[in-house]
Design a protein that fits this description.
133 residues, alpha+beta, two-stranded antiparallel sheet, flat
Length: 133
């Protein structure tokens, strides 16, 4: 956190900052940080949810795109939806399956590309500006 905050000029070299203040400054400055993979700015920071791993390779829910809790994966290893979406399905509440961008996690959207007298439809990242796939 300290390295990222120094890169955007939020804390000075050699300054000791209380941990609580450091957390608040980090959370408030998250939109200034650039993603190390795609270079886009506008990240967000939030408290981690207990029992959920958000590391690369962690399975995500097909319905909502959030990481599936570790406890659920241990109980039902082949699951493709989180517990909340499974409960909604059991209650008869239908959610639309969404596809998410593999680079930034934003929902994918259908885009129309005119080609002469025809139109081609493709899936593209809904982030602005769209990240290159």
């Amino acid at each position: 956190m300290v390295t990222w905050l120094r890169q955007v000029g939020r804390i000075r070299e050699g300054k000791d900052v209380e941990l609580e203040i450091l957390y608040e400054v980090f959370r408030a400055s998250a939109s200034l940080f650039a993603c190390p993979e795609c270079g886009r700015t506008g990240l967000s920071a939030a408290n981690a949810v207990e029992g959920v791993g958000n590391w690369p390779g962690t399975p995500t829910c097909l319905k909502c795109g959030r990481p599936i809790a570790r406890e659920r994966l241990e109980a039902v290893p082949q699951t493709r939806v989180c517990a909340a979406c499974q409960q909604d399905a059991e209650r008869g509440i239908q959610k639309e399956d969404k596809t998410y961008c593999p680079r930034c996690g934003a929902p994918m959207e259908v885009r129309a590309i005119p080609q002469g007298n025809r139109t081609r439809y493709v899936l593209g990242c809904s982030a602005h500006p769209p990240c290159p796939l």
